[in-house]
Write a structure and sequence with these properties.
Length: 134
């Protein structure tokens, strides 16, 4: 797996809403905004599934995803790609469930998406646009 740099982790921590992209097995894309997204460690992202529909269907049949890290407070942007494991039980899921419930009872925390980072790409415009960073 790939480990984010300190600068990337700092940028990630500043973003509140992330675009989260998936695709069906047939390649039909889907992107949604997610708020319950956090770094579990340097190479793992936790995403709580509260209201996923197409996203969950896509991950069930094609367990890869991408997150876009961007915002005015970040000063740049990068794309993270990774492999996703869906958890609906166990210690990690219970921690994610408790975290969602701490934010409000309206969040069902149906599952935890554990994304292992496989690649990171540059997103800002210029000669390095699309360049693989990690």
């Amino acid at each position: 797996m790939v480990k984010l740099t300190e600068d990337m982790k700092e940028a990630f921590s500043k973003v509140k809403i992330f675009p989260f992209a998936t695709a069906s097995k047939a390649g039909m894309p889907n992107v949604i905004p997610i708020g319950m997204c956090q770094l579990a460690d340097d190479e793992t992202i936790w995403i709580t599934d509260n209201y996923f529909l197409k996203t969950r269907q896509n991950l069930d049949e094609n367990p890869v995803a991408s997150i876009f890290v961007w915002g005015p407070e970040v000063g740049g942007c990068f794309q993270i790609k990774g492999d996703v494991e869906i958890k609906t039980s166990g210690d990690d899921y219970e921690k994610a469930y408790a975290g969602a419930k701490a934010k409000g009872d309206k969040f069902p925390a149906k599952a935890l998406m554990v994304m292992k980072i496989t690649e990171v790409f540059e997103c800002k415009s210029g000669d390095d646009a699309g360049k693989k960073l990690l």
